[in-house]
Amino acid sequence: MAAYDALAALPLVIDGYDLEGRSRQVGEWVRRTTIVHLRGGGEEGLGEDVIWDPELQGAQQDAGPVLPLAGEWTLGSLSHHLETLDLFGGTAPERKEYFCYRRCAFESAAADLALRRAGRSLAAVFGREPRPITFVVSLRLGEPPSLEPVTRRLAAYPFLRFKLDSSPSWDDAFIGELAATGAVDSVDFKGAYTGTPVDTPTDPDLYRRVAEALPDAWLEDPDLTVPEAAAALEPHQRRITWDAPIHGIADIEALAFLPETLNVKPSRIGSWQELLATYEWCEARGIQTYGGGQAELGVGRGQIQYLASLFHPDAPNDIAPPRYDWAQFPETGLAPSPLDPDIEPTGFRRRS
User: Fold this and answer.
1) What is the C-alpha separation between 250 and 277, in angstroms, rounded?
2) Domain range list for the chain
3) For a tag site, which of 232, 266, 270, 277 has the least CB within 10 Å?
4) pLDDT, tens only, 198-242
């Protein structure tokens, strides 16, 4: 854990903090996030809370900066302090990972602040050279499904690769059209989600047809608790990867088999200590990691791109620059893949 030890030792002074609400209309719903501004010693550190529940975001913003964070710390001691705090004002969120999401926002802001005060970059502390970042664009294709979101983007940006959320409504003809684009890097079955708006029914026949028609695509989050689904994907086991169940090393060890690749989301893991331990654990076992986004509206997207540039730049990172996934995306001017890391000389941020 040399990387974490170096980061955890950084001194940190916090004078106070502020919260900035962000929102964007996405179809019929509004995505809300919260930017954490930690202040100390004339510098500011930023992080982004990506909890999906808009009421929890609103409650945090309405309550304001009530957490006892002012004082002198190291990054490591502040992390331990955060673990003892009630981050939700006496309420208990239904989804346990929301504690990780919120903690990640404050730990990211704290790292940014500590590094800026030290005049160092995250890359320098880790002793890693940032490299250009390969990314994919994540899309849902509607009901009934349409190829148009893919083909319209390919017409504007022919280099694009995609991660697509599957649906039981995909018939053989539609899957064949997707395969003909040659641009599908992964298919997300959403089979590991329960009690969320994106829950998707387990469909062993869909799993089989997708796996056979897209022989080079990663197969993310299938529901293998259904024996028929597990049997359908057994010949394609090496391409199965996981996202939603992974909150750290213990979740990887609990899998039925070690995968070749994993979606490691910093927000889902929560703390720097567990995130860096997970990266190192996977690297030691030859497991390729890749990054995934959470529809960030601010600095959070750049921060996960920063981490990708250090730990998994060549993977199918689901962290495309904002606007690629907008319904009315700009048809010119978006940065290509691979993305320039473009890190700031100090702190934990990209310039763009």
Assistant:
1) 11
2) 2-125, 128-311
3) 277
4) 668 899 999 999 999 999 999 999 999 999 999 999 999 999 999
Q: What is the pTM of this model?
A: 0.96
Give the relative orientation of helices 204-213 and 172-181 as an angle to the nearest 10 degrees: 30
Please name the residues in contact with 159: beta carbons below 8 A apart, sequence gap of 6 or more.
336, 337
Cα–Cα distance for residue pair 282/94, rounded to 1 Å = 29
Q: Which CATH class is domain 128-311?
A: alpha beta
| Cα–Cα distance measured from residue 270 to residue 129, given in angstroms and rounded to the nearest whole number | 24
Please report, as a single letter, which amino acid is at residue 326. Answer: W
Contact 310, 280 (CB under 8 A): no
Q: Are 45 and 113 in contact (CB under 8 A)?
A: yes
Are 239 and 251 in contact, with CB atoms under 8 Å apart? no
